[in-house]
């Protein structure tokens, strides 16, 4: 067998779960990392052939070294994670001061230097990418004796946020021990069954650990949650829809912003509940003028 001349490149993807096909066909940029010792011009010609379709669409192709290509992927996700934690921290401050976090987000978003994406207050980030990539940044920093204080604070606040919200629930209900709490949404975001690092799952575990009885419903995340929480099977009931989930519950918590939930019959939900506490941790109903006619309603970042 003869000697093989193989080049290794880094071509990171920047795809959103649930929208990967669209993102693949409509990239903001294409990044290619090339080893410093390789024949760069030859590799560039091959890359241009592969991405000819995108060149015609005038999508920029950025050539760099391997380290930069890899770090650009981690940096992009870490920055978006910082943005999410920042707006959630501002949401907690808004609740204390009487500000409206949704108006704060809107005002910030009009600034072209900031932009309006990833400024929706909620439960924090989850899924397979942001948690993994922020921890990767911290590990790279540690291995290179570089303190990543901003990313470290982002990860910490994202974890602490769940306890802050549990405390909010306890304060309003008096206690959650023995209470039946209904959870709407299990996947870390809508349009997927992915529950990896899902904020909803973390909220559920924390509530069960302090004695709450849990009912859950999610359009797609049920089966994976059953496997994830199989050791909690005595404390959790899986329901066939949002109305069964809400039945005889003391408290309803919306944790994932599925479109299906936006269209649910609020009066029907209220009528089947034992008590009418509703924690909207995605602010799906914050602009609904009738919501407070049915519930003791608590969104994120609004007094």
From TrEMBL:
The keyword NAD belongs to this UniProt entry's keyword annotation: yes
Active site: 129
One Gene Ontology term of the molecular function aspect: NAD binding
Gene3D superfamilies, per database record: Cytochrome c1, transmembrane anchor, C-terminal (1.20.5.100), NAD(P)-binding Rossmann-like Domain (3.40.50.720)
Broad class of enzyme this protein falls into: oxidoreductase
GO biological process, one term: polysaccharide biosynthetic process
Ranges for domain UDP-glucose/GDP-mannose dehydrogenase C-terminal: 182-287
Reactions catalysed: UDP-alpha-D-glucose + 2 NAD(+) + H2O = UDP-alpha-D-glucuronate + 2 NADH + 3 H(+)
Pathway: Nucleotide-sugar biosynthesis; UDP-alpha-D-glucuronate biosynthesis; UDP-alpha-D-glucuronate from UDP-alpha-D-glucose: step 1/1
Domain of life: Bacteria
Keywords per UniProt: NAD, Oxidoreductase
Annotated protein name in UniProt: UDP-glucose 6-dehydrogenase
Provenance organism: Leptotrichia rugosa
């Amino acid at each position: 067998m003869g000697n093989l001349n193989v080049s290794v490149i880094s071509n990171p993807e920047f795809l959103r779960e649930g929208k990967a096909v669209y993102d693949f066909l409509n990239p903001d940029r294409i990044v290619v990392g090339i080893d410093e010792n390789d024949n760069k011009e030859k590799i560039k010609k091959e890359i241009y052939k592969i991405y000819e379709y995108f060149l015609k669409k005038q999508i920029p192709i950025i050539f760099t070294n391997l380290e930069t290509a890899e770090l650009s992927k981690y940096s992009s996700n870490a920055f978006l994670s910082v943005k999410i934690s920042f707006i959630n921290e501002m949401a907690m401050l808004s609740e204390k001061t009487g500000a409206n976090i949704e108006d704060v987000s809107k005002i910030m978003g009009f600034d072209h230097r900031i932009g309006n994406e990833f400024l929706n207050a909620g439960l924090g980030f989850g899924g397979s990418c942001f948690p993994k990539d922020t921890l990767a940044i911290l590990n790279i920093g540690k291995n290179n004796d570089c303190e990543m204080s901003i990313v470290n604070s982002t990860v910490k606040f994202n974890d602490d946020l769940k306890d802050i919200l549990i405390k909010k629930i306890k304060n309003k209900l008096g206690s959650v021990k023995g209470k039946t709490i209904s959870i709407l949404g299990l996947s870390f975001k809508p349009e997927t069954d992915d529950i990896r690092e899902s904020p909803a799952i973390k909220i559920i575990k924390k509530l069960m650990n302090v004695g709450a009885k849990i009912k859950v419903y999610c359009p797609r995340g049920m089966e994976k949650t059953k496997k994830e929480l199989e050791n909690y099977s005595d404390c959790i009931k899986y329901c066939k829809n949002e109305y069964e989930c809400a039945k005889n519950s003391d408290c309803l918590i919306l944790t994932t912003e599925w479109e299906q939930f936006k269209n649910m019959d609020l009066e029907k939900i209220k009528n089947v509940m034992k008590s009418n506490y509703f924690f909207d941790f995605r602010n799906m109903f914050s602009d609904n003028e009738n919501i407070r006619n049915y519930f003791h309603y608590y969104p994120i970042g609004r007094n």
